[in-house]
Amino acid sequence: MKTGFIGIGNMGGAILRGYASSSQGEKDRIMICDPNRERSEAVLKEFPRISMTEDILDLVRASEAIVLGVKPQAIDDVLEVMAKAYLPEKLVISMAAGISIAHIRKFLGRDAKIVRIMPNTPALIGEGMIAVCPGDGLSLADLTGVDAILKPTGKTEEVPESMIDCVIGVSGSSPAYTFMYIEAMVKAAAANGMPMSMARTFAAQAVMGAAKLVMESPKSLEQLRIDVCSPGGTTIEAVKVLQKNGFEEDVRQAFQAAVDRSKEMTRQKGE
């Protein structure tokens, strides 16, 4: 498909670069539109066959699939312009938090082909987790096209749109919680005499390895934790402190705060 990207910031740019670097992404069939000219020129330097426009209508007319990497507060203005050239056979992929498929259809029409997605920042290195929420009326070819655009940036999983707020809490926002955990470990290690650069490597590799073990092991999360905690050893003492200080409850509350904010953003749009 001829694919247009409106907004190529962190997430839009990550998906663009993943797609353009893959065997699926034919560079001369990709167009970008972003108000930040410096950002656009950096992409063109990296992928010279990609085309650029400063006119959203040009991109909409030329594209079969349109990826919206636009922030929620700006999306209505973009959709209002898009509506002047949009046709129902064009596929629209939106990653704006709090912006429902129904809201987008208010601008583009009831027959608009919409896919709502929720990626996360590890997509920047091809390790993202992307929820895919297809709207009504999409064909198998449409979904195959979406998969081709998204797969180069990480794992994809189809979920109902009703689950998107939960996705934001458990995946979309959760890299930030993980970075906080790693930062706390690095600071603690540095306080015990380890150089911070070394501590960062040790802490990050431990988290990455633990995550991979979760993905590949058939054991429950509880059993994986128990396996590390030898009676009378070091790990069980650390776990006791985390449990005493309410670590799991803090994580649960952080997750819920993200979910609640996502729901609030949707309500503010009148959905």
How would you sum up this structure, described in words?
With 271 residues, this protein is an alpha/beta fold. It folds into 2 domains: 3-160, NAD(P)-binding Rossmann-like Domain (Rossmann fold, 3-Layer(aba) Sandwich), CATH 3.40.50.720; 172-266, ProC C-terminal domain-like (ProC C-terminal domain-like fold, Orthogonal Bundle), CATH 1.10.3730. 54% of the residues lie in helices and 13% in strands. It contains 12 helices and 8 strands. The protein has helices at residues 10-21, 37-46, 56-62, 75-82, 101-108, 140-150, 164-172, 174-191, 196-216, 221-228, 234-244, 247-268; strands spanning 3-6, 30-33, 51-52, 65-68, 91-94, 113-118, 128-134, 154-158. An 8-stranded mixed beta sheet has the order 3-2-1-4-5-6-7-8, with helices on both faces. Helix 7 packs across helix 12 and helix 8 (174-191) crosses helix 9. The longest helix has 22 residues, at 247-268. The two termini are 31 Å apart. 33% of the residues are buried. The model has no long low-confidence stretch (mean pLDDT 94).
Query: What is the quaternary state of this protein?
Result: single chain
The 3D shape can be described as elongated
Classification by helices and strands: alpha/beta
User: What is the number of domains?
Assistant: 2
User: pLDDT under 50 segments (min length 5)?
Assistant: none
Give the name of the CATH architecture of the largest domain. Answer: 3-Layer(aba) Sandwich
